Amino acid sequence: MIVTERQRETLPLASLAAVIGGLTVVAMTAGFNAPLFSTRLDAMGYSDQLIGLNAAANSIAPFIMAPLAPMILARYGLARVMIVSGVLEALLFLACIVVPGFWGWTIIRLMMGFIAGVSWVAGEVWITQAATDATRGRVLAIYNSSFGLGTAAGPALLTFAGYAGNAPFLLAAGLLTLSVLPIFWARRLAPAMEDDGNRPGIRMLVTPLRRAPVPMMLNLSYALVFVAVWTFLPVYAVDTGYDVDRAYLQLSIFAIGSIVLQLPIGWLVDRSDSRLTGLALLVATLVLVAFLETFVRWPILDFAYFFLLGGISSGLYVVALTIIGAKFKGPALAGAVTIYTLMWSLGALVGPPIVGEINDHIGPAGLMVSLVLFTAIFVPFVGRDWWRSRGQNPPNA
């Protein structure tokens, strides 16, 4: 069949729309995964320590997944992996009905974390590889916004379904089955995992850290900031005596900013040096978090502040993934995205304990101090990388 120039332009758009749509539906499930299990286990009378262990199973799974993901993607392809992952995760949610209780759900959540991790890597490889160098920033911005919208919709869907009974598990299984449909439709449009001569394995995971440490640092910094704000802002409100409901509203505005500002940031990335853009966003995040205690109690301005903080900090994710997409292809891209994903998981694991430890020593100001630490520590490395690469790479490389 002869493919016209117009068709060549249309196929990537259809491919990207399908995978972004599928991942957005997956994000809805991810949005109510944690609150669903924590609420159900609490109602069953399990301790906070055991509830935390159950949640940790889901967070630890990506580290188990990492050495295997590039090999799985190279062997089976992006579309097949995402389709099978969606079906398996749907079956695991149904299994929660049959095997209720702490130990059964903890094992299931470990399996869910592994499967979802492989699927997430496959989706981000698909999006990053299908986008062109000239549009990658905007495409990733649309993906990040869509994923954020899906995640934000998760708790609302859980409210609709309720925490009790089998309804939330059936809803999750239905959503995951729905997420498979656009992937199945676009399965022939998925980018091929071309053999680049490297055998998938541990070495493929180490190489991206050596070749592209800066995007990994940017994503780690974003994860540390996001999880710290999301976890400890209500605690800060309680400790300093301002309205906790106001803190919840601030978190909502923070999330809205992380959705709305993605496209302008993606547009900027496509038209500028991505390393310089990443450095500018990192420095801007540092400046914003340094003034947290100034704006957090300032009516109206606090909403503007959290809108900017959410949007600018989440822009680090788009910039970093754009750099990775320009530098890696094929199986090497799968390895790089796997490590990139692990940086987020690492930030989610170590961030809250660090903030908690600092809070124990200096009080409520520990949140602001931690956020400054989570950004300032990376500025010299990102700045040095930009300075050394001036004029050596295309704008979005």
Helix/strand layout:
Blueprint: H1 5-43, H2 48-65, H3 69-76, H4 78-98, H5 102-130, H6 136-161, H7 167-185, H8 202-211, H9 213-240, H10 244-260, H11 262-270, H12 274-290, H13 292-295, H14 301-327, H15 330-362, H16 366-376, H17 379-389
Helix pairs in contact: 1-2, 1-5, 1-6, 1-7, 2-5, 2-15, 3-4, 3-15, 4-5, 4-7, 5-15, 6-10, 6-11, 6-14, 8-15, 9-10, 9-14, 9-15, 9-16, 10-14, 11-14, 12-14, 12-16, 12-17, 14-15, 15-16
* Cα Rg: 21 Å
The CATH homologous superfamily of the largest domain is termed MFS general substrate transporter like domains
Order of helices and strands: HHHHHHHHHHHHHHHHH
Which percent band covers the strand fraction?
Answer: under 5%
CATH architecture of the largest domain: Up-down Bundle
Report mean pLDDT, rounded to a whole number: 85
Percent of residues in helices comes to: over 70%
Query: Can you tell me the CATH class of the largest domain?
Result: Mainly Alpha
- The name CATH uses for the topology of the largest domain is Growth Hormone, Chain: A
Oligomeric form of this entry? single chain
Strand tally, please?
A: 0
- Spans where pLDDT lies below 50 across 5 or more residues: 1-11
Total discrete domains? 2
Largest sheet: none
From the N-terminal CA to the C-terminal CA, the straight-line distance is: 34 Å
Brief description of this entry?
This protein has helices at residues 5-43, 48-65, 69-76, 78-98, 102-130, 136-161, 167-185, 202-211, 213-240, 244-260, 262-270, 274-290, 292-295, 301-327, 330-362, 366-376, 379-389. It is mainly alpha-helical and 397 residues long.
